[in-house]
Amino acid sequence: MIEEKGILFILSGPSGVGKGTVRKELFDQATELKYSISMTTRNSRPGETDGVDYFFKSKEEFEELIHQNELLEYAKYVNNYYGTPRTYVEQTLAAGYDVFLEIEVQGALQVKENFPEGVFIFLFPPSLEELKNRIVSRGTESSDLVLNRLKEARKEIEMMDAYDYVVVNDKVEHAVSKVQSIIQSEHLKRERVAKQYKKLLEDEL
Amino acid sequence: MIEEKGILFILSGPSGVGKGTVRKELFDQATELKYSISMTTRNSRPGETDGVDYFFKSKEEFEELIHQNELLEYAKYVNNYYGTPRTYVEQTLAAGYDVFLEIEVQGALQVKENFPEGVFIFLFPPSLEELKNRIVSRGTESSDLVLNRLKEARKEIEMMDAYDYVVVNDKVEHAVSKVQSIIQSEHLKRERVAKQYKKLLEDEL
């Protein structure tokens, strides 16, 4: 193993694009990836374990962590905070594991500000038509809401420029294979590994 | 197909590292890659076809092309020129094909100057010991020559900084799979494809 530190990969994209499905399939195949564990102020549910499903914190603790810039991103939904703790990510990377974060576009842009060395992958819908179908087929949205979410999706697609890669989610297995290529090739980048290779050489001389 | 233009990939590395073997195995698997056809002033041999095996040119023609900066790189061996014609590469890329060039380090550095948008992959020996074994096992070199080539190899490894990726050639099939990941992920880079994705979006609105 020439490299010691892991890489933070962020999979993001408009809602309805299928981020969760791609992440799930990826984790079924790439078992050495570590999923970023979120921090939340909501109560734990039966069966949930602190430090496994979530890091559970009080509202005061969470706000103190925000204040200390200890969250790579966070948001508040219905009176509860959700966020990505910096320390867990950094410790996992330092231990040599890649960390994988699947997240909405707004959150990804926050991570980009706080952790620009991450690798940002934008999941793109095969077409706006298809994105609409996917949003509609969730079945829970009125047609006004669907239109709003499509408008939102178009805005999010405009934010693509903050990302390093774009993967079209035409078929889950294709998208997963592309994400795997990105993960592998990022580990081969010269600026990441040249120092170690040169050291290897010096050790042999 | 979101993208129209191909990418020039350059596989290089110290002599003895196994560039030819990796390239051969890669081409057995990736049939849509186009191999860069070299230009030479040496006479064609029986069975060789102009424009397939080589582009055969007279010395005067070749020197005129050098003068016109029509070669991405060239060198002279035993009174004959060998080089990589820019026009063939550019036409093949424009037709949407990736072009693959396997070449010595000195040549790769020339290509880098003339075609910096290429993707440069450095093939690294698993160890200097192994590199020595490979050079020796070719069986045609005296021990002085082997030492010289090792010294040369160490110098070439120092030139790694001009490259985009480093792939260790521990096993051919691993190296090939890594090169394939690089080829795939380079096509997913946002700066290459964002314009086309945004156009796609506009066309749908």
Oligomer: homodimer
**Radius of gyration of chain A, whole Å:** 19 Å
Largest interface: A-B, 36 and 36 residues
Order of helices and strands of chain A: EHEEEHEEHEHEHHEHH
Amino- and carboxy-terminal Cα gap of chain A: 20 Å
The profile of the biggest β sheet of chain A is: 5 strands, parallel
Query: What is the name of the CATH architecture of the largest domain in chain A?
Result: 3-Layer(aba) Sandwich
Task: Please report the total strand number of chain A as a whole number.
Answer: 9
Uncertain regions of chain A: pLDDT < 50 for 5+ in a row?
none
Keywords (chains A, B): ATP-binding, Cytoplasm, Kinase, Nucleotide-binding, Transferase
Enzyme class (chains A, B): transferase
EC number (chains A, B): 2.7.4.8
Family (chains A, B): Belongs to the guanylate kinase family.
Give an overview of the whole structure:
Two copies of one chain form a homodimer. Chain A has helices at residues 19-29, 59-67, 86-94, 105-114, 128-137, 143-158, 172-186, 190-204, and strands spanning 8-12, 34-35, 39-40, 55-56, 71-77, 80-85, 99-103, 119-124, 165-168. Helix content of chain A is 46%, strand content 19%. In chain A, the strands form two sheets. The first copy, chain A, has a five-stranded parallel beta sheet, with helices on both faces. In chain A, strands 4-3-6-5 form a four-stranded mixed beta sheet. Chain A binds chain B through residues 2, 122, 124, 127-129, 154, 157-158, 160-161, 163-168, 177-178, 180-182, 184-186, 188-190, 193-194, 197-198, 200-201, 204-205, and chain B through 2, 122, 124, 127-129, 154, 157-158, 160-161, 163-168, 177-178, 180-182, 184-186, 188-190, 193-194, 197-198, 200-201, 204-205. Chains A, B: It comes from Oceanobacillus jordanicus. Chains A, B: GO terms for molecular function: ATP binding; GMP kinase activity. Chains A, B: Essential for recycling GMP and indirectly, cGMP.
